[in-house]
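User: I'm writing a tutorial on reading structure tokens. Could you give me a worked example: one chain, its sequence, then its tokens, then a sentence or two explaining what the tokens reveal?
Assistant: Sure. Here is the example chain.
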Amino acid sequence: MNRTTLSLIAGATALAAVTGFATLKTPDAAADHTAGAAARLPVERTSLLCPQPSTSDIADTAYTSFTPVAEGAGDRGKAELQVATAESDGNTDGKKSGGKAAKPVVRPKEPGKPATGDTSGAQTPALVGIAEGKFAPGWTVQETTDVAVGTGRGLLGTNCTAPDTEFWFPGASTAEDRSDYVHLTNPDDSAAVVDIDLYGKDGKLKSSVADGITVQPHASEPILLSTLAGDPQTNLTVHVTVRSGRVGAAVQALDDKIGGDWLAASTDPAGTLVLPGIPKDATSVRLVAFTPGDTDADLKVRLASPTGLITPAGSETLHVKAGMTSAVDLGDVTRGEAGSLVLTPTESSVPVVAALRVVRGKGDKQETAFIPATAPVSARATAADNSAKGSTLAVTAPGEGAKIKVTASAGSEGGTAVTKTFTIKGGTTQNVEAPVPSGLKGTYALTVEPVSGGPVYASRMLASTQDGVPGFTVQTLPDDRGTVAVPEAEQDLSVLLKQ
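And here are its predicted structure tokens:
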């Protein structure tokens, strides 16, 4: 096999890694593309991992799966969300003891319509999901858990994530009133080896047990962060790196007094970050930031409000020392209006990761959620598990204004999809009046697609008040990576042969 052929195979392999677990369809050789152009084709296989939802005996968890209808995705395929095999019975063949196949928690029937499943109690394990063919492009699974009382009580939610090899979690804690766990889930047939580094206000914390953690095949490991370090730290950044294999990772932050939620990974370190969708009635907002390099970062802190970009009084800038976690309390920064935080360099750009801890309510009726910095919606993003009431879609255009299309899918038990368009003014955040499917029964998905203008960032909040406690959870909406650019093989080969 010559070097040119090897290069083509390597290129296709690299593209297949874009969504963590994907295979790609070969372009039609008859397609009319310009020389050197790349066709965008639907991903044909996607993997998602859902962490163990709770250790509470009274936890109730709902799983909602949704795949948007994708042009060119074909008419075949399947998707399943299964118990991580090694957790259920120690086997690796997808069957329980005695040879009986494990029943999927969720098995969608068709794209464009949500599928649901549920579990309860403390013994619910992590789940591993595979979607193929028409179910793969843009596949989204939401895990939503309701815990009535106890540490971390409230509404907890997370998007099940694709496996990867590196994750950043600013906003974790080992304070005495917090019990934070990093959940590591391995979808593959071989063990993964993982390192976990913790960074506090004075730099990296010393630990003799955070390196070389083995996660067995098709298994999940919840690791209590306080067991990895010594003195309690109020604000921490967690860095998960995988030496071999790949994992899904998420941090579950549980507070004794003010509830808890999932802290999803921040987007990759960057000089400019957007943290969208702070609730308008937030009573406390804390910004936690970390720069992984050797250079300090100075950030301009601004709030994208419904009327434009404003600078929070007393928190105009944030200095982040290299290798150290910095935090600033912004109070009730939104003051009754929709808002998103926009971080930009004051001078030279230094890569940073960041997240917000957000509190709603007062006194003993408080609840917590987290908003990590996220990537923009370049083509499409989806939030599953919405209801006619209790869902808030926040969209921000930090630079140039933008026009977006929002589609409410059919309901899981009935209803017809509805689409609306919205214009987001530059420098603003809007809580858009998202559409609801006509004749809705069950739950539905919201899909956001940019139409024109500058970059947009989005998040969705679910809210449910119980006994006066304003339970809520926020999920950011990065692009779903449902398509991938694939060079036309015939054209690329001719280019390579000339080199």
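What the tokens reveal: The first strand starts at residue 38 and ends at 42. The CA atoms of residues 177 and 256 lie 5 Å apart.
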